[in-house]
Every structure is written in structure tokens, then in C-alpha cells.
Amino acid sequence: MGRILPTVLDTKYENILSRERSLAKAVAKAVIGLNPITAWDIMLPLVFLYNFLRFKKAREIFTINYLFTKKLALEAAFDMIKKSQSKEEVIARIKDKTSNTLAADKKGIYSIKIRQRQMKEIDLLIDHYYKLLNAEGKDYASMVKNAYQTKKHYTAFLGQLKRDEKEVNKAARRTLSTPMASEIVAKMEETTDRIRMAEVEKIFRTNERVV
After folding, report:
1. Global confidence as pTM
2. Among 28, 93, 148, 209, who pairs with 153 as Cys (CB 3.0-4.6 Å)?
């Protein structure tokens, strides 16, 4: 059988997901730094390898968790276009999935408040991704520029997303209630904001229309 070639919609989906994954990895790297190399690491390479793999695993887990809401929303927007599903249908599916995740959590880490605030973030992201997937262009910068037209409009969206993410993080901090949680959240938010603002400047650095 011949290989099925990806559609334009598939390519857009993968490019958006790739961008979100890159952001998640950058935040993970900032939040979970490697320990300084010690004499034991030099004398015993296996110690260094163990520490490296441990931190690598932690970063991978962090990246997956960071992408949780983004991936749910992106899949929903994709299905709205490819499968002609309504927003109500995809939201209902996400509510079921997050409800099951809540029920399965025996440690009490994933709280009702976190889930409620995540649903607000997801609702915003679905509209955002739907707009990008329907815009001209295949790469992320082109989709953003054609979907939002101006730096002001895109920055306004990022501002709302930042507020929604802060509400999720606030609920998470209250659930975990540790000084380290507050420190991690602060680093997450600072890094995310810095990367996004740099990206905005790069995308809208000229008045040329990207197609």
C-alpha cells in the first residue's frame, strides 16, 4: 500500500504542536536545571549518567504535563475542522476526559479547582487553534500573522492566555502548598512570558504579509 501523504491541515497541526512542544521544553529546561558536576560525577561516570537520566526524565514528564491543556485544545480544534464536530461536542469530550483523570487521581494533586480553571484555558485555546488552522500559511509564524493580522491583536490574545494560565497555576499552588511550588510557578511564568514576547517581536518585526 502507498503511503498516505499528510494534508495541509495535518501539516498545520504538526507545526502548531511542534511550536508548543518547543516552548514546553524551554520552560522545562529553565525550571529543572541540572545539578553542578561534582567530583563523584568525574570519578564515577555511572553517577553522572544516573543524574543525567533522572533530570532528563523529569524534564520529559514536565513537558508532557505542560502540554496537557494545549494538546487537548489543539486536537479539539482539529476535529472541529476535519470531522465537522461542533465546539460543544469537543468540549463535552474534554470534560469527560478530565473528569476521568480527576477520578483516577488518588493523591489529590489534580483538584476540582485546577480542572475548572483548565477548562477556561482550554476554551480560549480551542478558539485560538481553530483560528490558526483556518488561516493561510503552514508554518506557525505565517498562521499567526494571517490569523491575527496585527501585533496588537495577537498580544491581546496572549494577555488573556497568560491570565488564564495564572489562574490554573494559582489553583495548583494552593493544592500543593509548598514554597518550592511557588518558586517553580514563578519561573514557569517568567520563562513562558519572555519566550512568547520574543516570538511576537520576531513574527511582527516587519509589515510584510506572510502567506
Report:
1. 0.85
2. 148
Q: Is residue 211 part of a domain?
A: no
Number of domains composing the chain: 1
Q: Which three cell numbers stand for residue 189?
A: 511564568
- Percent residues over pLDDT 90 in the chain: 59
Angstrom CA distances, 26 to 13, 19, 62, 195, stand at 20, 11, 11, 9
- Residue-wise pLDDT for 89-140, tens only, equals 999 999 999 999 888 877 777 889 999 999 999 999 999 999 999 999 999 9
Are the C-beta atoms of 168 and 37 separated by less than 8 Å? no
Grid-cell match 520576531, residue found = 202
Range of the domain at 75: 8-203
Q: Report whether 59 contacts 29 (CB < 8 A).
A: yes
- Specify whether the CB–CB gap between 201 and 154 falls below 8 A: no
Residue 2 falls within a domain, yes or no?
Answer: no
Is residue 31 in a domain? yes
